[in-house]
Amino acid sequence: MLVLTRKPNEAIMIGDDIEITILSIEGDQIKLGINAPKNVDIHRKEIYLSIQQENRKASKTENNFLEGINEYFKKKS
């Protein structure tokens, strides 16, 4: 992990096209501004993990559905 120290209105660059700026520091909260191309998804980590979990559930449901259809047609033959 890279650890950097920044002050308000200072920024870091990730690659050539992602810029993260420290907007303000208030108590134990830091407000960040993120400039990135529209094709880059940006989520809070807890939201990202929730999306990943839902995607795993959906893919399992789809596999079970397809296996059920496969079994149905095997019995028909």
Please tell me about this protein's structure.
By secondary structure, the chain is an alpha+beta fold. It folds into 2 domains: 1-39, no CATH class; 43-77. 42% of the residues lie in helices and 26% in strands. The protein is built from 1 helix and 3 strands, in the order E-E-E-H. A 3-stranded antiparallel β-sheet has the order 1-2-3, with no helix packed on it. A hairpin with a 3-residue loop joins strand 1 (11-14) and strand 2 (18-26). The longest helix is centred in the C-terminal third of the chain and has 32 residues, at 45-76. It is elongated and about 70 Å long. The protein starts with 10 loop residues before the first strand and ends with a helix. The mean pLDDT is 90. Homodimer; the beta-strands of each monomer intercalate to form a hydrophobic core, while the alpha-helices form wings that extend away from the core. Keywords: Bacterial flagellum biogenesis, Cytoplasm, Repressor, RNA-binding, Translation regulation.
* Order of strands across the main sheet: 1-2-3
List how many beta strands DSSP finds: 3
Oligomer: single chain
Structural class, by secondary structure, is alpha+beta
Q: Could you name the ranges where pLDDT drops below 50 across 5 or more consecutive residues? A: none
Helix content: 40-55%
N→C terminal distance: 57 Å
Q: Major sheet, described briefly?
A: 3 strands, antiparallel
Number of structural units classed as domains: 2
Radius of gyration: 22 Å
Order of helices and strands: EEEH
Shape: elongated
